[in-house]
Specification:
By secondary structure, the protein is of the alpha+beta class. 31% of the residues lie in helices and 26% in strands. An eight-stranded antiparallel β-sheet has the order 14-13-10-6-5-18-19-20. A four-stranded parallel β-sheet has the order 2-1-3-4.
Length: 397
């Protein structure tokens, strides 16, 4: 087995998801990622897992479905997919998902509006389980040759694959002598930033620059988080590896202005370029893009909360992902390279219980990147004081 695969598998099992003896473990992977999935299963069993189930997703079958299924059934997802997720929460399982596009550009020939209506393999029950904090979970990137060719088209396929692996190893801190210790150090930094943001108790944050002027209001008990999570059983885990963000839930009724995505994003397999969104009264009232606007429009019309924000996240330029200068065409990596917002569902952990009823609710959670060194972030207090938060991509608080 490739040593890189074994080291990544060990990091995600032992530190990322922090699999416990006796746990059931779910591994979710696209076809083409079997080698890492098997390595994860081996490490999980060595760690004492009771049972490891690997579920493979075939994006080409989704292509077949979107191109052929009746229009009235496009949004249908069999209920047992959601019931399965609820059961994972009930038994307090561990979950590991392998990120990274397995078949880039596969969906380019499909009707973008139809594609945006089929959100599978996402199921809304995952947000319930996440909010219940009953599953220790982790999403980690898995390099594939096709993904490498998309990210580094200037290189020959073997060199592109090696380059992508080098970058994944670097951003996941596998190039450190003790990757878990390196992550604990980075986690402490993110937790410290979150604490300083919470001490200021901002009423809103404003993004300005590079075609963006957006003010996002916060709820009275909005709390910034970052650097990892803990289940109701006290199991520490890193939901994302890598992670470089601090995030919170905004007031879904208070987003005003225009925002321009600073990076491409991938939604339901479609690549969206040049996304521009205008918000009024918290709702996305105009969505344009150089490519893929209809896909985002379909997402945003999925339900009542799909056109409102459920997350606002800040990322500084000191993280390892942004410093690579690489666009990965994968949300896990690209959202941790730049500040971002998300249309759709919010995380309960972002507010105190008294504000849970005010959080945005939706079947979707779609992140898109709006930050960078040329985008200033300013915190606005309830007294109207403007406090620099990010300038040139560096923390100011």
């Amino acid at each position: 087995m490739d040593d890189r695969i074994e080291r990544l598998a060990r990091l995600v099992v032992e530190f990322g998801a922090n699999v416990q003896p006796g746990q059931l473990v779910e591994v979710f992977a696209d076809l083409g990622k079997e080698e890492l999935a098997r390595a994860i299963a081996a490490v999980a069993y060595d760690r004492g897992a009771k049972f490891v189930e690997v579920t493979y997703y075939d994006p080409r079958v989704k292509h077949i479905r979107v191109s052929r299924v009746r229009d009235e059934w496009l949004e249908y997802i069999p209920p047992w997919w959601g019931q399965r997720v609820i059961e994972l929460g009930r038994v307090h399982a561990a979950s590991i998902s392998l990120a990274g596009p397995a078949a880039p550009r596969l969906f380019d020939d499909l009707d973008p509006a139809r594609l945006g209506r089929d959100i599978f393999p996402r199921v809304k029950e995952w947000m319930q389980v996440t909010n219940d904090r009953t599953v220790n979970w982790c999403i980690v990137p898995c390099p594939t040759p096709d993904w490498a060719a998309q990210v580094h088209p200037e290189l020959q396929p073997p060199a592109a694959f090696d380059r992508l692996w080098d970058e994944i190893g670097h951003v996941c801190r596998l190039d450190e002598a003790d990757p878990p210790s390196a992550w604990r150090e980075r986690s402490a930094t993110l937790k410290d930033v979150s604490q300083r943001m919470n001490e200021r108790a901002f009423d809103a944050v404003q993004f300005e620059g590079d075609g963006t002027d957006l003010t996002v209001g916060l709820l009275p008990t909005s709390r910034w988080n970052g650097g990892g999570d803990e289940t109701v059983d006290g199991i520490a885990h890193m939901p994302n590896l890598p992670t470089e963000e601090v995030f919170t839930a905004p007031d879904p009724e208070r987003a005003e202005g225009t925002v321009r995505a600073t990076m491409p994003l991938v939604a339901s397999g479609a690549t969206i370029d040049g996304l521009r969104v205008r918000f009024e009264g918290g709702r996305a009232v105009q969505i344009d893009a150089d490519r893929g606007a209809d896909t985002i429009g379909a997402f945003a019309s999925r339900d009542e909360g799909a056109s409102r924000l459920g997350e606002v996240a800040l990322v500084d330029r000191e993280g390892r992902i942004g410093s690579t200068g690489t666009v990965f065409y994968d949300t896990l990596l690209d959202e941790n390279a730049a500040s971002h917002v998300a249309l759709g569902d919010a995380y309960d952990s972002s507010v105190e219980p008294e504000d849970h009823e005010r959080l945005n609710r939706s079947e979707i959670h779609l992140d898109f990147m709006i930050g960078g060194p040329s985008v200033d972030v300013t915190g606005i207090t309830r007294d109207g004081e403007r406090v620099p938060v990010l300038r040139g991509g560096l923390w100011q608080i």
